[in-house]
Amino acid sequence: MALFFERPESGEKAVLVHIKLNSESEPEDPREFEELVLSAGGDPVEFITGSRKSPSAKTFIGTGKLDEINATVKSVDAELVIFNHNLSPSQERNLEAVLQCRVLDRTGLILDIFAQRARTHEGKLQVELAQLQHLSSRLVRGWTHLDREKGGIGMRGPGETQLESDRRMVRDRIKLIKQRLEKVRKQRDQGRRGRQRSEIPTISLVGYTNAGKSTLFNKLTNADVFVADQLFATLDPTMRRLDIADIGTVIFADTVGFISHLPHRLVDAFRATLEEAVSADLLLHVIDAAAEDRATNIVRVDEVLKEIEADKIPSLMVYNKGDLLDDFSSRIDRDADGMPIAVWVSALTGDGLDLLLQAIAERLPCKIVHEHLQLQPSQGAFRAALYRHKAVLNESAGELGIINLEIQLAENDFFRILKAAGLKKHDLVTL
User: Fold this and answer.
1) Does the pTM of the predicted model rise above 0.70?
2) Which pLDDT tens digit goes with each residue over 367-382?
3) Which of 78, 234, 313, 337 yields a CA-CA distance of 20 to 30 A from 171?
4) Candidates 3.30.70, 3.40.720, 3.40.50, 3.10.20; correct CATH number of 368-430?
5) pLDDT tens-digit map of 379-407
6) CA nearest neighbour of 252 among 210, 286, 228
7) Residue 301 CA: distances (Å) to CA of 232, 239, 284, 296
8) What does the domain layout of the chain look like in residue ranges?
């Protein structure tokens, strides 16, 4: 059963509605709202604003504002009205009855973007789960013509039977998707445990959506993650290996961008994606340094990290898009103890990425092995692997084919090379 929203190829003409509520402690951002609509492929033709003490239970807005929106919809021939708020199912139904066009709330808008961006099997499952959970409370909307009849004697059957059938299909599908996602999570956990056993550190890129995480990820790892100047360009977790001086091999993970007031249902649906952040050894908190609301976005990301219990993981701030700043120069900011706390870079130009790798090497807990070894002729494969990892500082020949090596490399790489060569540390002769 495919339940992804139907979308036309071209942008839909949409009227945007943003109401400032006195009861809101932290109102939604109208600029971000317009970016979300553009990211969904919408064509915003009008932006209607207003203010109220609190939402109307029936239509969220008052009758005067509803008349204004209705007149605007007709004058611009809009196909869609999008609210920068979360609406109840009854509010959506009542608004559609008056406006005679589709009405979408903030959660529905974000879900539509998610549906367009998801590429992997797991990502599509996560999107469909979130859509079904959102849709389940709104199913009655499609059967209101039968719903009205069910009160009469002899008129109960068709409406109730069809509606209950639809609800049961949705419940069954949700159950199936949750089972499939649990299987995917177990596979991901196995991979994560494998990385932990081999002691490969994991670094997760997190940050507000459209902060440039994927551009930075591509630049660091030579990957080809989808990049676009739009919100939620990345939904599926992508992982790549990278060798860092004095650290050895690390795993970089690119994650979904955060956004203000992300509905709990979506956080739950995408928990598997965000689990890469929860299990990381270091978080790179990527920030759009040129954004006007930079400080607010940092707070929003911190809130989500706390919600997914990743706020205790060591983090390094990465101020990106330095190329958009006046008098920009890449640098490392340090705390009173000299530990890196922030790096200023431009992922687009590559400026400052060497400093970022240096800061990562300083922040990641990693032991360095510096040894003088005597290798037997039979241990040539181990010697070759050390050269491949650029771990050999000096070499000299001894008697009877003995090779004297001075090596320096990360401890996790050292033991991994030993294991691949079928050796234990006590098999080596140290000087």
Assistant:
1) no
2) 678 889 899 888 888 9
3) 234
4) 3.30.70
5) 888 999 899 888 899 999 888 888 999 99
6) 286
7) 14, 21, 12, 9
8) 13-117, 200-363, 368-430
